[in-house]
Amino acid sequence: xxxxxxxxxxxxxxxxxxxxxxxxxxxxxxxxxxxxxxxxxxxxxxxxxxxxxxxxxxxxxxxxxxxxxxxxxxxxxxxxxxxxxxxxxxxxxxxxxxxxxxxxxxxxxxxxxxxxxxxxxxxxxxxxxxxxxxxxxxxxxxxxxxxxxxxxxxxxxxxxxxxxxxxxxxxxxxxxxxxxxxxxxxxxxxxxxxxxxxxxxxxxxxxxxxxxxxxxxxxxxxxxxxxxxxxxxxxxxxxxxxxxxxxxxxxxxxxxxxxxxxxxxxxxxxxxxxxxxxxxxxxxxxxxxxxxxxxxxxxxxxxxxxxxxxxxxxxxxxxxxxxxxxxxxxxxxxxxxxxxxxxxxxxxxxxxxxxxxxxxxxxxxxxxxxxxxxxxxxxxxxxxxxxxxxxxxxxxxxxxxxxxxxxxxxxxxxxxxxxxxxxxxxxxxxxxxxxxxxxxxxxxxxxxxxxxxxxxxxxxxxxxxxxxxxxxxxxxxxxxxxxxxxxxxxxxxxxxxxxxxxxxxxxxxxxxxxxxxxxxxxxxxxxxxxxxxxxxxxxxxxxxxxxx
Length: 548
Ligand code: G1P
Ligand code: ZN
What we know:
The protein is an alpha/beta fold.
């Protein structure tokens, strides 16, 4: 097989967003687009890591969405032509994001390439994505993503070879021009790890006692993992996993575990004979939604509740060394950390910022308001892990989800929370809004909006406590007297125009007010948010497209 270099017309790369490069499938299918990114990655890695890629082992797999397998075949050829030693590919091209992280760590690989656009819709008109994870199993840090971005801007050709497609449907060993390819069971390493994290005997007992779970895999990647864990290993009733067959277009829906896209689950959990716990995960299996009877647990609360109950999970038997949350995530977990006397770190949005803290043993548990929670068992957020954590809590506490949540609020107070998204905005207008807001921050303290007095305002910058790297412009924060907060930032994962995210939070210590609906409680903050950033005037939108 001869290796050849295919010239590319000068290519202008796109700066990778919050989690890798994400684009419409039609963009990824353009001649040379995926190839340019992958070639740039292979050329950037030696620079960014100081190590040669020749002979190294990479993990490769994705969430099974449309274009997954075609992309894998393309990447394998580029990998062989660029001198990689071995590729570990999930059978059928499948690997959930947490499972890819588990494989990289368990087998000491150099890194991994994960193909997914997470919770974005799939299919020929949907989205596709590619991200690189480093040897700790976590998302590439900015040092690496920036190096890849710089390479994509100058790249003028890629190395590949002509070869028939590599069969991926059966486990085993093959080779491509001197590069070994191992097709591996996509579930095994992950399940082996997760069995060490939780008390499976205890959970089996829970299901033997008649406990009922409904897990909605949303026709995305978690189906095979969930069936193996819940139904086969833990003995949950057949049918516990619904929509368990992965489909290239996710059955035409958004594989996004939230009340809008997982409304069937929310309805099932509101029905008279609802199961004890409802849960769902997203396209690539790293997000989670936790639903009780008639109640969706907010991800920020879920993170705090997991932290408060970590002692119930064998993996955390020595206690938590520290926790972290992304900046816009509600500060409910901060209260738990304070009660436990452990540090709580605030990081920019995106899982990659947790990696150093986890590696350095400064934190054991972390999460984001966007339905991601995880721990030091991996370097990715992990949807099924969160469900197993909740099952562990319920096995020990024997109460309903609503009781566990209400009791948590009684002890720590409630952080009312909502995220307002303004989607598909004109990019320039959205950028202008943020720019003007940044310019106005210094003038806000002392002023009042909707009856709320501003105490302080800043543009969040983060200095990584482990390596000292600085990340700026991570969102405008406005703090009000009484502890309320508004955060504004632009999404780094959208593929259509710009998305403005506005995060509202209000702390309420009084248990008599904990069961109020969030919307009226947060209404003054929503009003203040619109006024401060002149959202209507600058975006032409009177209200958000999505409230989460
Ligand atoms: C969103 C979430 C963020 C998460 C990311 C990847 O990014 O807000 O918490 O890490 O997806 O799942 P955003 O679109 O806000 O940049
Ligand atoms: Zn995801």
